[in-house]
Amino acid sequence: MARILLAGYLGSGNLGDDAIMAAFAETIGRYGVECSALSGNPEETYRLHHVAGVPRKDMAAVEKAIQAHDALVFPGGSIFQDVTSVRSVAYYAKLVEMAKKAKKRVYLVGQGVGPVNSFFGKRWTLQAFRSADGVAVRDPQSLEALRTLGLKTPVRTTADTAFLMTEPAQVEGVESFGVGGMRTVAIAPRPVKNVDVAGLAAELCARAHKEGYMPVLIPMDRNEDVPLIQKISDRQGGKIPDLRKVVSPYEVMNRMDRMDLCVSFRLHGGILA
To answer: What whole-number distance in Å separates Cα of residue 196 and Cα of residue 144?
Structure first.
């Protein structure tokens, strides 16, 4: 059986990245391929997704895992960007380098590329994509970003890997999810630099309630969005229902399936909806 090691921002509290991992592992598993993942939380990754995890920051364990697998695959996400920090690009480029030195195949799939603005960010991104045995991006803008960096090797434009997730089973007789007899609208916010997202989302919640909808806040990123939804609730002078205890993208999708509407500030909130 072929063995693939998955890499990305996996098992780190982001439901979008975990949706990508779960969808890829489930889909390719139908073809007799076994997946493991470099994870920020190996125990949670296995418990929620039945994918064996390797601590992503333990470089000795990472090197051993690369040696034990047939290929290193990056199943998606916007990991090659230096808006937050160039360290992200450095880490993933290093993984590619380690895999190629171990004579393993490397595939970059469903990638969202950029923005990459720093000198080293551009250099490491181009080096990683040049070294890959296969590249597929999720949108034309990512392809353009790679061409601007100077990548001349073939690149396929596909879609975000999370679209491979199995849709929730339709249960006859189950009505939409309501709170206090009101229809529900999912709101998935995210912090944006120099933008009062808490104020905007709080106003949106108030407007939704006025129109007969109960807003339900969904933190797609455990580290960034949970403090934000608390601020939104505080702006409204009371607690707005939320799904902060839901940690699986499949569970979020099942909840969304019973709601009436979704407003998402995050790409994968929209994809799950």
So the answer is: 31
- The H or E element that residue 187 is part of is strand 183-188
Amino acid at 56: R
20: CATH = 3.40.50.11930
SS3 of 72, please? strand
| Domain span including residue 212 | 183-272
DSSP output for 126-162: HHHHHH-SEEEESSHHHHHHHHHHT--S--EE---GG
Domain shared by 14 and 119, yes or no = yes
This prediction has a pTM of 0.92
- H or E, element range at 49: helix 42-49
pLDDT band at residue 174 under the 50/70/90 scheme: very low
pLDDT of the residue at 182: 82
Q: How confident is the model over 106-140, as pLDDT tens digits?
A: 999 999 999 999 999 999 999 999 999 999 999 99
Which alpha helices (DSSP H) does 167-266 contain, by range?
A: 197-210, 222-235, 249-257
- Could you tell me if residue 172 is inside a domain? no
CA distances from 32 to 28, 76, 160, 169 (A): 7, 21, 22, 24
* CATH number for position 253: 3.40.50
Do 108 and 129 meet the contact criterion of CB atoms below 8 Å apart?
yes
